[in-house]
Amino acid sequence: MSICENKINIYLTKKFDDILEEFKKISEFDMFTDYCITGLAENDMNLLKELKEIDFMKETTKQDYLYLFGTKWVDFEGVEEREHMLTIQFESAYSPPIPFVELLSLKYGCSIDLSYSEPMSDKAGLIVFVSGYKSFEREMNYYQYRYSVENDFECLKDLLVIYPKESVFEEISNLDISLTAEEKAKLLEFVTEENDLKKIDSFESTNLKSKL
Length: 212
Prior knowledge:
By secondary structure, the chain is α+β, with helices and mostly antiparallel strands. It has 2 domains: 146 residues, Api92-like domains (Alpha-Beta Plaits, 2-Layer Sandwich), CATH 3.30.70; 59 residues, no CATH class. The protein contains 9 helices and 6 strands; from the N terminus they run E-H-H-H-H-E-E-H-E-E-E-H-H-H-H.
């Protein structure tokens, strides 16, 4: 199964404890959709109809219902609370629970930014909701997200395994990633180190075979 990593930052609200309690309630329900409708929204159809990410007038199949709030389950991972911000990290099946975050922002009248990444489908993004209104959205590929949002330069080393040295910078550019001259130098240094290690491994392997 494909796992989507999610992180939400909730800002400037005195209801952090209430929101944490909402997450604890998820485990009480067999279906995430049931939790969102019955638990979070408390069966308030007027509240649910305000959601822009879901068309409640559209006829849905059982499969559609499972993923009505973006995913069929979420798995709580961790929380960090600061004076003016609450950060919650969790996993979800296949895709981010965008309508769930919209509903959370709408119900509590707070600002929430959601960042997500799913490597199998090469999808990632950032979304900001302010009292239920989507004020910002940016979609990107997985490595672009890791590099620009998570500030993870080291992840680009993965691409050296996928692409040959001669074309790796072109491929990185195709991912809409702009490297600084210093970062290019670091990556080239790593390529050289890797090639040297491969030569050593090859030499030792050849030497061993000749002795045998």
